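Pipeline run #58 for the internal structure catalog. This entry was flagged by the ingest filter as a single-chain record with no existing model, so it goes straight to prediction. Upstream metadata was stripped on purpose; only the residue string is passed forward. Reviewer on rotation: M.T. Logging verbosity set to normal.
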Amino acid sequence: MLNNNHKPVKEADRQIDTVAKALCLLDCFTADEPELSLKQLSEKTRLYKSRIMRLCGTLAANGYVIRTTTGTYKLGPKLMILGKVYERTNPLTAVARPIMKDLSALTGESTKLFVIEGYKRLCLVREKGPSPLQYAINEGETQELYAGAGGKLLLAFAPEAFQREIIYRKRKQFTKETISDANVLQKELEIIRRQGYAASKGELVSEVAGLAAPVYDYEGLVCAALTIAGPKQRFDAERCKQMLVQLLEAAHKMSMLLGNRASA
């Protein structure tokens, strides 16, 4: 297909504006903001309120959003149904959940599975540990790639061009432990690749520590980061050594079930 300038149009560029705007509205809802007013949606998307009302009307008619009695909007049941379909048809999710449940019971800490989504990392699966004091992130939430064990692990095994783009772009300083120097971050990624795991203490949240191990797909590429995270005081050197063995074993098992021959 050619555009008006007679240049080939890529498939990814063939977007229907109305559909794109409707999806943009759905992206506004988060675990922290599950219910939004018309004004909030307008501020987030910079769309006119009249257009938002038309789009939300269509989404509501098909079960993708719900309009509450107070006039606000929240996500509808259709998305839960689609999410369950995605979960059942995603081999990574299906393989990960039982292994992560065992790992959380074994370590006493919450476990999470992260994948790269755009320029961030997405929490694909989360299993809570038995301890009442733990670090929680919801499935579907995103975090930065340059801070925290899971993010650094994924970044370390990402293509070099992508790494450079993250390393040399403007980065937020979450805590005093967040790596701010590009050269220091690059060396950290080299260490992670060499040792085969990542560790962090207080890089995203001051009181939280974590460990992360790579999960390999059938092509031998890192497709996810399996992490253990919890309060920093529970991640002393001796316990980290013990949990790391358990984490690497779980990641190895996950990779094997995904068809990675090196893990068989």
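catalog note: The two ends are 45 Å apart (CA to CA).
catalog note: The beta strands are 35-36, 65-67, 73-75, 110-117, 120-127, 142-144, 198-201, 208-216, 222-231.
status: ready for reviewer M.T.
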